[in-house]
Amino acid sequence: VESILVQHGILAPKRYKYSEIKKMTKSFNEKLGKGGYGSVYKGVLPDGSLVAVKVLIETDSNGEEFINEVASISRTAHVNIVNLLGFSFNQNKRALVYEYMPKKSLDKFLINDCPLDLDKLCKIAVGVAKGLEYLHTGCNTRIVHFDIKPQNILLDEDFCPKISDFGLAKLCKKKQSIVSMLGARGTIGYIAPEIFSRNFGGASHKSDVYSYGMMVLEMAGARNFVENEAIQSSESYFPDKIYEHVVDVTKKLDDIMIDNEEQIVRNKMFLVGFWCIQTSPSDRPPMSKVIEMLEGSIESILIPPKPVLWNARVSDKEISSCSSYVERENSTQD
């Protein structure tokens, strides 16, 4: 693990013994959450600081995902990126020590009777956009996250959002537009079409923009448009009527100057979301433009073209088609 971290050229965070991980979590006494990667436990450092300890499922693999997370996040320093405090790597026992986020993840608030108002959700969306802009353009090395979704957005005491879970992230040179991919990565419902098939283009930082757009549409209330239907894919998630509703309301805002602030914020988020999920990666805005749209007036946002919805249920053959395609972008390209 040390040689790989040195190869990434980073100053590694503190390395803990696994016995120290057990001690700080009181033998994994309080579980905060669970996922495909393993479980997260509440812990306390010797100085009394609360931490979240992510314990990965024991595996005989070489730990590529683990190294990815340590290497990626150790390069970052931003208010909207979760802070990695330390890690433990002992054969097949691996753990990551993060700052503790008392409000947990965003998905907990995107349920029926959401306790957060739209203004707060829009501010969270802006914070996530600023975090992504930093990953894409603010680091010495561009970081593409590849798994932006509500479950990976953590919230602090003041609901300041922090992007987490960099296990699928890719590091690439600033001028590298298309990322080398060896198989699809991400979560169904948030994955950009180019991740599944080269027919849509190459995987890039614009793939994060797509996932972000899907999340923003969900934050704005897109679930309410899907009646009694499990959200399985982009296809079932965003039927035509959502787009038609957004266009209709936007025209009304222009024509009769509706002064319902909540409706204006909701429609702004819908418009931004639809810009972000354009089928062609080149049609999606850079995150700097997303921030500008969210923080500006709704009148300044053009109505986006209707995205061509695609079927996320694809074959293994199509998934494997997004392999090793790298090209350089012009310095003027987003």
TrEMBL record:
ATP binds at K54. The keyword Transferase applies. GO terms for cellular component: membrane. The keyword Transit peptide does not apply. Residues 26-302 form the Protein kinase domain. InterPro entries: Kinase-like_dom_sf (IPR011009), LRK10/LRL21-25-like (IPR045874), Prot_kinase_dom (IPR000719), Protein_kinase_ATP_BS (IPR017441), Ser/Thr_kinase_AS (IPR008271). One of its GO terms (molecular function) is protein serine/threonine kinase activity. It is found in: Membrane. It is a single-pass type I membrane protein. It comes from the Eukaryota. Keywords: ATP-binding, Glycoprotein, Kinase, Membrane, Nucleotide-binding, Serine/threonine-protein kinase, Signal, Transferase, Transmembrane, Transmembrane helix. Belongs to the protein kinase superfamily. This is Protein kinase domain-containing protein. It comes from Erythranthe guttata. The lineage of its organism: Eukaryota, Viridiplantae, Streptophyta, Embryophyta, Tracheophyta.
